[in-house]
User: What shape does this take?
Amino acid sequence: MNTLLRHKGWTWGFRTTILLYFVVLIVLPILGVYYNSFSLGFGNFAESVGDPIAWKSVLLTLKLAVIATVINVLLGTMIAWVLIRYPFPGKALLNSLVDLPFALPTAVGGLMILLLLGPGSLIGGMAEALGFEIVFHQPAIVIAMVFVTFPFVIRAVQPLLEELDPSEEEAAYTMGATRSRVFWQVILPSMAPGMISGGMLAFSRALAEFGAVVLVAGNIPGRTLVSSVFIFGEVESDNPVGAAAVSIILLTLSFLILWLINMLQMRGRRA
Assistant: This one.
């Protein structure tokens, strides 16, 4: 079997299949978006990108994605720390539940948030009594973004904590370092690459979230209309050029983020 797989014909066939798979499922759709954006000329593209509603949706998406990413970095790092450092009953179950947002359809996640925090729910009713509205406002969008991007930071930080040599901490304690100094100078630098890469992936994913957001956002232009819902609305309004123009902004941001993650990983390997 190994001899057969090493044959030049089989090797060429595998490589060709993988390249075709990559081109058809990834490269061609991306090129199609860029082509449609400029199909009516650069002037039409600039007009679509310069639409105030489009820009407000992009800026709102960026702002809320940053907030969701900061929350995820803080909470995700703490959860990863607890899962690695402390034994407790139900630890295995909690560790498996971390990946639930990956397996769950995002629309179901949005429905869960709607039922939990909506006007007819206990929490939603208490918030309204206090004069604070969650669903169909920006807090609900942040919660939806946090939910769908929840695993990224945890799964990026966990292996770094597992690989951290306990002897480094013990040596620092032996030299008289306090717990806080050990954390900031020994543990945190080891976790930082995972926090940064996981945060970037969470940010990139939050930019594109649609299924969970569309159910809880309210979709008010300039207030709760995010880019993914704006793109959907443009397609429904038979304006694919306008949808593709905003999509290019999100695609470019995602490419930059992935490039930065790749650069960080390469530097980490060299170090």
Summary: The chain has 15 helices and no strands. The chain has a mean pLDDT of 81.
